[in-house]
């Protein structure tokens, strides 16, 4: 499980759902959708420190400008290690948010011609991000 830390910037509420904006660094803003509100989860408030969790298999890797895609959690990163197996590829990634891991198909890694030191954009759907109060 990948884990970053950040501070809640804003909480947008509709019914019993909230979209939470989290400042991870000055340049990286992540979003999570949670089935909670500030009334039901006391940690959902501005400036609260949270842990941001997401699975390695939920990371999508892209090359170049990703402005034409609906995914909002975009983390610029550099590949520091690459293990391509028969079916899967494990990528170790270094970003301003921290070091994390992605697991994608081996076919995708080959098609993208991924190599160590390549610059990539790691993307995570906001419904795949979990928050934990710190």
Task: Describe the model.
- The chain is mainly beta.
- The protein has a single domain (about 1-134), classed as Beta Barrel (OB fold (Dihydrolipoamide Acetyltransferase, E2P)).
- The protein has one helix at about 105-110; strands at about 1-15, 15-25, 30-35, 50-55, 60, 75-85, 90-95, 100-105, 120-125, 130-134.
- The strands form two sheets. A five-stranded antiparallel sheet has the order 3-2-1-4-10, with no helix packed on it. A five-stranded antiparallel sheet has the order 5-9-6-7-8.
- β1 and β2 (about 15-25) form a beta hairpin.
- The mean pLDDT is about 95.
CATH-level-4 superfamily name: RNA polymerase II/Efflux pump adaptor protein, barrel-sandwich hybrid domain
Q: How would you name the oligomeric state of the polypeptide chains in this document?
A: single chain
**What share of the residues lie within helices?**
under 10%
Q: How many helices in DSSP terms?
A: 1
Number of domains: 1
Helix and strand pattern: EEEEEEEEHEE
Q: What structural category arises from helix and sheet content?
A: mainly beta
State the name of the first-level CATH class. Answer: Mainly Beta
- Estimated radius of gyration: 16 Å
Which geometry do the CA atoms define? elongated
| Shape-level CATH architecture | Beta Barrel
Query: Strand share of the residues?
Result: over 45%
- The CATH topology is OB fold (Dihydrolipoamide Acetyltransferase, E2P)
* Count of strand segments: 10
Instruction: Kindly report the average pLDDT value.
Output: 96
How can the largest sheet be summarized? Answer: 5 strands, antiparallel
- Termini gap: 17 Å
Residue stretches low in confidence (pLDDT < 50, at least 5 long) are none
Q: How are the strands ordered across the major sheet?
A: 3-2-1-4-10
Organism: Leeuwenhoekiella aequorea
Keywords: Molybdenum
Protein name: Molybdopterin-binding protein
Domain Mop: 68-133
């Amino acid at each position: 499980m990948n884990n970053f830390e950040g501070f809640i910037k804003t909480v947008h509420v509709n019914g019993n759902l909230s979209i939470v904006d989290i400042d991870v660094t000055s340049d990286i803003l992540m979003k999570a959708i949670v089935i909670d509100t500030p009334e039901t989860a006391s940690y959902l408030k501005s400036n609260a420190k949270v842990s941001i969790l997401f699975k390695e298999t939920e990371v999508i890797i892209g090359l170049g400008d990703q402005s034409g895609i609906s995914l909002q959690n975009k983390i610029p990163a550099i590949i520091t290690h690459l293990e391509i197996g028969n079916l899967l590829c494990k990528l170790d990634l270094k970003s301003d948010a921290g070091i994390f891991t992605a697991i994608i198909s081996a076919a995708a890694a080959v098609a993208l011609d991924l190599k160590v030191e390549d610059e990539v954009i790691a993307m995570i759907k906001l419904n795949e991000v979990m928050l934990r109060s710190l």
